[in-house]
Amino acid sequence: MGYWRFVVENRLFLLAGFLLTFTSSFGQTYFISLFAGQIKTAFSLTDGEWGGIYTIGTTLSAVAMIWAGALTDRFRVKNLSLVIMIMLALACVAMTLISGSTLLILVVLALRFTGQGMMSQLGAVAMSRWFVAARGRAISLASMGFALGQAILPVIFVGLLAYFDWRLLWIIAAISVLAFIPLMQFLLRQERTPQSMAETTQSLGMQGKHWTRTEMLRHPLFYALIPLVLGPSAWGTALFFQQVHLTEVKGWSLSSFVSLMPIYTSVMIAFTFITGWAVDRFGVKWIVPFQMVPFGISFLVLAYADTILMAGVGLVIFGIGQGMQGTATTAFWAVFYGTRNLGAIKAAAAALMVFGSAVGPGVTGALIDYDVDFPEQMIPIALFYFAGALLAGLGILRYQRDLPSVSA
User: Fold this and answer.
1) pTM of the model as a whole
2) What are the distances in angstroms from CA 276 to CA 136, 271, 280, 331?
3) Quick check: 363 and 48 in contact, CB under 8 A?
4) 371 CB neighbour count, 10 Å cutoff
């Protein structure tokens, strides 16, 4: 099937996937961190204390994802998305009402669980299950929601911060989420059930079977991939979480740094589509091990960058990694472990990813409080990325022989 014919014939499902990933923006770190300065001032927090609160709330959301993520195997995306989007809107409103740091933990938990956790999970599982031969293309198209959100929301909301109180902007975020609900319900009015999709597509994993989550957790390959899942989430989250601190240390204005986001996003979009094509053409096993390398290179560039131009170079390289990672990792679980229990399997990976996004801000924030600036931390983080790439490559090389020939 031609590319444009594929898009036209599947436009409703693809647009639904796009909308799911875009709406997750309001619970993503790059959005929440825009208000870091205001939140620290309002609650009298240091970098380490704010990072600690973010870590606790995000860790709790990771625990919740282990159970809640598996719901995508049992319920329609249409029904689950309705509940989760209402919860996300309420979490945005709650940010405007709280007055204590304890309640701030609960709000972070709610934002991270509904936004980064469940909305992302719904988008990824839906695309992986609904599409088989064109899985890479479907995931890359739906991922444009992440890209668009990261490209325009920081610019829009940083601009609005100059004129409006930060709490009012969270009300605007809540209204935006609620406004998307009718469109989502319309797009998925003819959605099939997860069970029927899993049965009809018959996308088998290693050893020609559909793996359960328990079986996956007993398999060595999963543990070889932990740095690959954890690293981009932990340190990529830290990069955007600490963007206020980073710009202060480097002597850049926050608006100048944020203005680089559309460039970064454009590169991420390009490599999302390139990776989607490569996954469908060559197989996901040839893509996944290499996706960590651009992350490592980008952190080295940013560590030594002394101008906003070099910061842009670093973000461009980081965008290459993000484009590869968002598509290839999502496709990997369906290819290697099958689609019947994909919700539960992806939930375990999503919980690990969310946990990583909790560790990154907490660790980097604590080190900043001990006078280790974030640029200094970027060098060992880069080495982590390179080591993770090597470990993932060795694991996939060992177990790719167990793939069915059609998947391989």
Assistant:
1) 0.73
2) 4, 8, 6, 9
3) no
4) 7
Q: How many Å apart are CA 299 and CA 314, to the nearest integer?
A: 7
Q: What is the DSSP string of 239-303?
A: HHHTHHHHHHHHT--HHHHHTTHHHHHHHHHHHHHHHHHHHHHH-GGGTGGGTHHHHHHHHHHHH
Tell me: pLDDT of 199 over 70. no
As a whole number of Å, the CA-based R_g of the chain is 20
Measured from the Cβ of residue 241, the count of other Cβ atoms closer than 10 Å reads 26
| H helices, E strands: number in the chain | 22, 0
CA–CA distance, 135 with 201 (Å, rounded to integer): 12
How far apart are alpha carbons 263 and 312 in whole angstroms?
8
Structure tokens at 74: 């049992």
- In order, the DSSP letters of 351-391 are HHHHHHHHHHHHHHHHHHHTT--HHHHHHHHHHHHHHHHHH
DSSP per position, 24-79: GGGGSHHHHGGGHHHHHHHHT--HHHHHHHHHHHHHHHHHHHHHHGGGGGTS-HHH
Return the minimum-mean-pLDDT range out of 2-11, 219-228, 256-265, 314-323: 2-11
pLDDT surpassing 60 at residue 212: yes
| pLDDT at 202 (0 to 100) | 53
The one-letter amino acid code at 248 reads E
CA–CA separation, 364 vs 36, rounded Å?
A: 14
